[in-house]
Amino acid sequence: MPRRPYTDSAMRLFIGIPVAGAVVRELSALCEGLRAGTDGFRWSAPESWHITLQFLGDSTEEQYERLAARLGEIHSAPAPIEVGRPGIFERAGIFHVDVELTDGLVALQRQVTARTALCGFQPEDRPYRPHITLARAKGDAGRRQLKQLRERVQAHPHFTAFTAREFLLYESRLGPGGSKYEVRAAFALG
Predict the structure, then answer these.
(1) Would you place residue 4 in the very low, low, confident or very high pLDDT band (cuts 50, 70, 90)?
(2) Which residues pair with 14 in a beta bridge?
(3) Phi and psi of 129, rounded to 5°?
(4) Is 162 among the domain residues?
(5) Is residue 77 part of a domain?
(6) Which of 24, 44, 97, 137 could be disulfide-bonded to 142 (CB atoms 3.0-4.6 Å)?
(7) Is the Cβ–Cβ distance between 2 and 168 less than 8 Å?
(8) CA–CA gap between residue 148 and residue 142 (Å, rounded)
(9) What is the pLDDT of residues 116-156, one digit of tens each?
(10) Helices (H), 21-138
(11) Residues 6+ apart with CB under 8 A from 173
(12) Has residue 151 been placed in a domain?
């Protein structure tokens, strides 16, 4: 588990699964076809695509050290991942693709939240809804265009199933062009 020491006193952390290369290519093709004529969205970069297991938020270096140690204690089989249909979260202004709740993914997510709770992090109150964020609406005009964007997906695209063989601890750094994600630690599954 390679770790890089922190120099900042606070960081925004989350835990996620990287998206397989085949799915990145398929999602890139989908997004490329949808971008034409839409200026009301901020499209996520393919290298930032992931499936969130838990968002942790602001964390200290001390929390990071405890967290990395606890996450290293997880023993889980590789998790099957099935990418589903494109959809929208209207209130949040997000265009995404759903990820199916397989038994392996749910078991991994529960282990992650159990370990993070030991470090003082609380799981969300709402049910776990895995997805891959493709675009965020910019302003009210972008929000109005969300339904149109979803309707432009001609048929239900098929995405390659894959097996998650690791999960990652990311740091999110906010910038003028959106968030940039940096991998802070990797944890093997299996």
Answers:
(1) very low
(2) 55, 170
(3) -135, 85
(4) yes
(5) yes
(6) 137
(7) no
(8) 10
(9) 999 999 988 899 999 999 999 888 777 778 878 877 776 77
(10) 21-35, 61-71, 103-117
(11) 12, 179, 180, 181, 182
(12) yes
Range of 102's domain?
12-188
CA angle at residue 121 from 190 to 95, to 5 degrees?
Answer: 75
At 66, the amino acid letter reads: R
Domain count across the chain: 1
152-158 — which CB contacts under 8 Å span 24+ positions?
A: 152/34, 153/30, 153/34, 153/86, 156/85, 157/26, 157/30, 157/86
Torsion of CA 62, 63, 66, 69, to 10 degrees: -110
Residues paired with residue 59 on neighbouring β-strands, in sequence order: 11
The end-to-end CA distance of the chain, in Å, is: 14
Q: Which amino acid is at 26?
A: E
Provide the whole-model pTM: 0.89
Q: How many CA atoms lie less than 13 Å away from 189 in the CB half-sphere? A: 21
Domain harbouring 96, CATH code: 3.90.1140.10
Residue 134 within any structural domain of the chain = yes
Backbone angles phi, psi at 115, to 5 degrees: -70, -40
